[in-house]
């Protein structure tokens, strides 16, 4: 039977071959043969792994931001002792980050655009984070601020700025480009019985040769192989019918080509041609183009 599907790795060259072979009789090909066409396996991390990695990256980001703010000491905190200041900034940034993530998770149902959602979340989370900051200032920095005070109203604007910065950096990190998944389809050799009837008509020299194409020639069929061309007394439609389970395309009323014999394809302004492995040029009709386009050649 055929070989197992081969799969290429992710994040490789930009060129991606996505050829999905059709068969001599198009959509009516047997399921057994279709199942032998190579597919791809996606080696993406599981959902649990992705979630864990995202949480780790967010935690690292919050710690980094908290450490930077602890060193800089904005909003007058530079005058506070180093240890309480570090605990204050690390604690409030991490707690505020968790609040922001919770609000962001809820908002995802209604706001799909990340940057708009970030702005809305920053505004909505500000009152909650302000209360956290106020309590942290009282506990860690020795302040004594009431919740309902002019200082708290001023603090709201300061917290909003920090929320925008933190959530904006989080959005920037989470918006990294999606990894490119390379998929390559390896076409399995045709089933022996798929070409048996037609091969039985060939001479001994070409009976086991690689089949490249069939070409209609009046009441004859030219069978192109890697061992040369042989002329058969056979209707072209009957020859194609005998290859109903083989990998290939009827690209023209006078041409059938094996899928693994195609080297390149060109299509421009309603016409095109295939270059085969033996150097032959085969015309592509308008009716044959959709098969090649679906297979990724055009």
How would you summarize this macromolecular structure in one to three sentences?
The protein is α+β, with helices and mostly antiparallel strands and 298 residues long. It contains 9 helices and 8 strands. It has 2 domains: 47-174, no CATH class; 190-294, OB fold (Dihydrolipoamide Acetyltransferase, E2P) (Beta Barrel), CATH 2.40.50.
Question: Explain this structure to me?
Answer:
- With 298 residues, this protein is α+β, with helices and mostly antiparallel strands.
- It is built from 9 helices and 8 strands.
- It has a 5-stranded antiparallel beta sheet. It has a 3-stranded antiparallel beta sheet with strand order 6-7-8, with no helix packed on it.
- α2 runs antiparallel to α3, α3 (82-107) packs antiparallel against α4 and α4 (114-140) packs across α5 (150-174).
- Mean pLDDT is 77; it is low at 1-45 and 179-188.
How much is the radius of gyration in Å?
33 Å
* Derived structural class: alpha+beta
Average pLDDT works out at 77
Helical content class: 40-55%
Name the helix and strand elements from N-terminus to C-terminus, one letter apiece: HHHHHHHEEEHEEEEEH
Task: Bin the strand percentage.
Answer: 5-15%
Q: Treating each run of at least 4 consecutive H or I residues as one helix, how many helices?
A: 9
Poorly predicted segments? 1-45, 179-188
Q: Which strand order do you get reading across the main beta sheet?
A: 3-2-1-5-4
Question: What's the number of structural domains?
Answer: 2
Total strands: the figure is 8
Instruction: Give the overall silhouette.
Output: rod-shaped
- Termini, distance in Å? 30 Å
Major sheet details? 5 strands, antiparallel
